[in-house]
């Protein structure tokens, strides 16, 4: 596992590093410079990012939330103090674990596991949502194509669907692709 530790304080970063010392096959990289942070993290290709921000200003916190939005990785963020707005912003930014005043080497492993599990659970939910949205869009396209065929060719709904299915089978394509082509062609031909 590759772990990136982001902390402007090398001393605090060493405490996190100490908490990871017991992990087997763990490659740890420490980033202490904020400039070019996203590019540096991307170059390391970590499996998880641990950020210790101590007591950050609002601007610094926003900057790290922006980094979190860009990275598609589990992120655990350690802060000394927080408020509801910061917690909400961290959730919106995709932070997997937001730990307030709970920084201790012996807790790092549990927090790391939590961040990875929450990230994976969220990623599964996002994939399911994307899949459902895709299926809904396909279904809407098929329904629109059936309406076009029913109106333009005087077909019943089952016959319109059968025509879409037959064309898809003949061309070795998905019904949704054929349906989208029908809808697009109808739009180009001035249909409404």
From TrEMBL:
Coiled-coil region(s): none
Positions of post-translational 4-aspartylphosphate modification: 52
SMART domains in the record: ANTAR (SM01012)
Top-level taxon of origin: Bacteria
Domain Response regulatory: residue ranges: 2-116
InterPro entries listed in its UniProt record: ANTAR, CheY-like_superfamily, Sig_transdc_resp-reg_antiterm, Sig_transdc_resp-reg_receiver, WH-like_DNA-bd_sf
Residues that span the membrane, as ranges: none
Protein name: ANTAR domain-containing response regulator
Organism: Novosphingobium pokkalii
Lineage, broadest ranks: Bacteria, Pseudomonadati, Pseudomonadota, Alphaproteobacteria, Sphingomonadales
């Amino acid at each position: 596992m590759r772990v990136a530790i982001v902390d402007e304080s090398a001393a605090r970063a060493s405490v996190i590093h100490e908490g990871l010392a017991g992990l087997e096959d763990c490659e740890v990289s420490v980033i202490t410079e904020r400039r070019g942070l996203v590019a540096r993290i991307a170059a390391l290709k970590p499996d998880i990012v641990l950020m210790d921000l101590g007591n950050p200003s609002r601007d610094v916190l926003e900057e790290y939330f922006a980094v979190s939005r860009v990275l598609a990785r589990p992120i655990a963020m350690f802060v000394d103090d927080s408020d509801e707005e910061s917690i909400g912003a961290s959730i919106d930014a995709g932070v997997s674990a937001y730990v307030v005043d709970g920084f201790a080497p012996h807790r790092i492993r549990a927090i790391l596991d939590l961040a990875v599990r929450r990230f994976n659970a969220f990623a599964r939910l996002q994939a399911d949502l994307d899949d459902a949205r895709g299926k809904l869009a396909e279904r809407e396209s098929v329904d629109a194509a059936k309406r076009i065929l029913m109106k333009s060719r005087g077909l019943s709904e089952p016959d319109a669907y059968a025509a879409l299915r037959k064309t898809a089978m003949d061309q070795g394509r998905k019904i949704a692709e054929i349906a989208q082509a029908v809808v697009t062609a109808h739009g180009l031909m001035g249909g409404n």
